[in-house]
UniProtKB/TrEMBL annotation:
A Pfam cross-reference name: HTH_18
Record SMART domains: HTH_ARAC (SM00342)
Protein name: Transcriptional regulator, AraC family
Xref: InterPro entries: Homeodomain-like_sf, HTH_AraC, Tscrpt_reg_AraC-type_HTH
Record-annotated HTH araC/xylS-type domain positions: 186-284
Keywords linked to the UniProt accession: DNA-binding, Transcription, Transcription regulation
Length: 288
């Protein structure tokens, strides 16, 4: 079964390249979000410049394009990492999460499970990993292969809801009625993930929803505490940093990927918001 057909990837935390020279480097999260489940050992992470210590029994969520950096590993690390494509998870999450939920989880990504919850999550993950592994290398009809992919997708959706249920059980929130402004913001986030590489103007996103730029900007600021431009800049700079650290693309190729007219313009844009040039940033990351 081709991995490209499956929008979900499950790996052992011990399989991550987090030792030696890889420590302190960014984990590429372009176009995908994920969750860590720690079984043993200890990992110190930095997510969007905020440090978190993940201990046995902890779960930690991160969103697509977040800057995830492993700072320290303690003991014999064991755990599971589940990563999903953002195109797959957004429609699922929008069924059950509103703006307040998403922002709350972004600001409070980690929870500690009870012993019973640990055993339950461990069992869920093992069953799901077994389902994925059973599909690898099997020969069958195209119908069987399609069914296996859909089973894995459906299982991933169920796993996502199970983890959300545990998260909000451990971190209860007062219910907030979903408003039209919530819908506007959530549509903006979907549009942003789909278009930020090519579109960096507020007007583009406002017109996608037939709204004036002024009203659209006020809604996004009200619901998230950030301006539309700040959201766009964060996405562009986040991908630029990850490509500089985690890929072998040249700076010119990165500029083209992010739809900058010239490498020079990309360099000025990057330095304006990061404080150093792309070349300096890459050299510093390689020196870690």
């Amino acid at each position: 079964m081709e991995q490209a057909m499956i929008p979900i990837r499950v790996s052992r935390l011990s399989d991550w390249k987090i030792y030696g020279s890889q420590r302190g480097r960014l984990r590429s999260t372009l176009d995908r979000c994920g969750v860590f489940f720690c079984r043993a050992g200890e990992v110190e992470l930095e997510i969007d410049n905020t440090p978190y210590i993940i201990k046995p029994g902890d779960i930690c969520f991160y969103v697509a394009s977040a800057l995830v950096r492993v700072l320290r590993v303690g003991g014999e690390i064991d755990g599971v990492v589940v990563e999903v494509d953002v195109d797959y998870i957004l429609p699922i999450s929008n069924k059950v999460l509103n703006v307040q939920d998403i922002l709350f989880m972004r600001d409070h990504p980690c929870i500690t499970l009870t012993d019973a919850q640990c055993r339950y999550v461990d069992k869920l993950l093992e069953l799901y990993m077994r389902r994925i592994k059973e599909g690898d290398g099997q020969v069958g009809s195209s119908k069987c292969r399609s069914l296996k992919v859909e089973l894995i997708k459906a299982g991933g959706q169920a796993l996502f809801y199970e983890l959300l249920m545990i998260y909000y059980t451990n971190r209860p929130m007062h219910p907030v009625q979903r408003t039209q402004k919530d819908i506007i913001f959530q549509r903006f986030i979907v549009d942003l993930f789909n278009h930020y590489r090519a579109e960096r103007e507020v007007l583009f996103y406002a017109e996608r929803q037939n709204l004036s730029a002024r009203y659209f900007s006020s809604v996004v600021k009200e619901k998230s505490g950030r301006s539309v431009l700040q959201w766009i800049i964060q996405m562009v700079i986040s991908e630029a940093k990850q490509l500089l650290e985690c890929s072998e693309l040249s700076i010119k190729e990165i500029a083209v990927r992010l739809n900058f007219c010239t490498q020079s313009f990309f360099g000025k844009y990057f330095k304006q918001y990061v404080g150093v040039s792309p070349k300096e940033y890459r050299e510093r990351s390689l020196a870690l």
